[in-house]
Amino acid sequence: MATPNTPLWEVFIRSRNGLAHKHVGSLHASDATMALQAARDIYTRRGEGLSIWVVPSTAITASDPAEKAMMFEPAESKIYRHPTFYEVPEEVGHM
Amino acid sequence: MYTQALNTAEADDRSLEDAGRAAQFQARIDAEERIEPNDWMPAAYRKTLTRQISQHAHSEIVGMLPEGNWITRAPSLRRKAALLAKVQDECGHGLYLYAAAETLGTSREELVDAMLAGKAKYSSIFNYPTLTWADIGTIGWLVDGAAIMNQIPLCRCSYGPYARAMIRVCKEESFHQRQGYEIMLTLCRGSDEQKAMAQDALDRWWWPVLMMFGPPDATSQHSDTSTKWKIKRFSNDELRQKFVDATVPQAQYLGLTIPDPGMIQDAEGHWRYSEIDWTEFKQVLAGNGPCNRDRMAARRKSHDEGAWVREAAAVYAAKRQARQTAQAAE
């Protein structure tokens, strides 16, 4: 029997309490349970994590890097969204 | 006639566009930007990296064999636990690297098949046998030491997924080198027989380890473009020299003699080694090293014997999926 390629999963790990899960890499596993166990064995051999998320790679929709200029243009021109855009006299002190 | 002329114009446009993209790509590399999987890249960059990263992955996996050979015969529980952890790390490194290679568009299955078919290479160093326990110390100290020398600059490689994988690998690799050196230190402080065993292992591994850095700069076929693309940051000979300079004092501390009577320290403090026997390197690369056939046979056997596990896992996943779909439909 020809075995289909084993699905790819993306692994996210929360390294410390209070931090967000962060992408650490990917792995192959045939189902979610095995993906979690493999993620533990591959990415947390030295206690790197408190919690693991595994997500099928096919479930991720990514923006196209070639379109990044257009994609992020709306934010480029809006410098008034930054605090440094506004003038506060020195006498007022830190704000 | 017109059609022809038009076609030519089109073809020219395409190559111009590619030349433009290639120039943009090189500009990004020159600006120390990282290239990510979905970014445009020249076909040759993709090909070079797929070859290099997959060979690196195969090396990690084959590298488990010479050391795995000693797990059941480690001299104490402490050594056994450390060796087991080290071999597990090598497996993990192989998997990080396969994942990085796959982002370039070739599946892990294809990469592994190419290796098992003998079409993809792995590091020649693993085609040497581990005859005594001192070989395990020497591998950690020298083979992993040489690997670290090679891999640290790769943490700044232009290809993002490879660079990130190398950062993880390097963090873990330093334990490997230290545990190897500790084994050597224990042997060198032991009986005369133990010290002789350590010297014998150094004698056998020294030259193959120097060959790990690859052919001399004058003859290396991949270096030029790899340097331009910032895949490679130092030349083979530069890294080899750095390694020798770092290793000589470590050997002196152990009281071991490096098997190179012609070695001298130059005015700048560099240890100048004698000519390397590249015919041996070529022989091992061509499949005629002491263990090439053994290693390939072990990999193929393990892959074949694991086939039922992969099949069972796939069938089980499909069955559960079908059940879920049926339940959802009810």
UniProtKB/TrEMBL annotation, chain A:
Q: Which domain of life is it from?
A: Bacteria
A Pfam family name for this chain?
PaaB
Supply the name of the protein. Phenylacetate-CoA oxygenase subunit PaaB
**NCBIfam families recorded:** PA_CoA_Oxy2 (TIGR02157)
Give the InterPro entries listed for this entry. Answer: PaaB, PaaB_sf
From TrEMBL, chain B:
A Pfam family this chain is assigned to: PaaA_PaaC
Spell out the GO cellular component terms annotated for this protein, sorted alphabetically and separated by semicolons: cytosol
Query: What does the entry give for GO biological process?
Result: phenylacetate catabolic process
Q: According to the lineage, what is the superkingdom?
A: Bacteria
Q: GO MF annotations for this entry?
A: phenylacetyl-CoA 1,2-epoxidase activity
| InterPro entries registered for this protein in UniProt | Aromatic_CoA_ox/epox, Ferritin-like, Ferritin-like_SF, PaaA, PaaA_PaaC
Could you tell me what this protein is called?
1,2-phenylacetyl-CoA epoxidase subunit A
State the species of origin: Bradyrhizobium betae
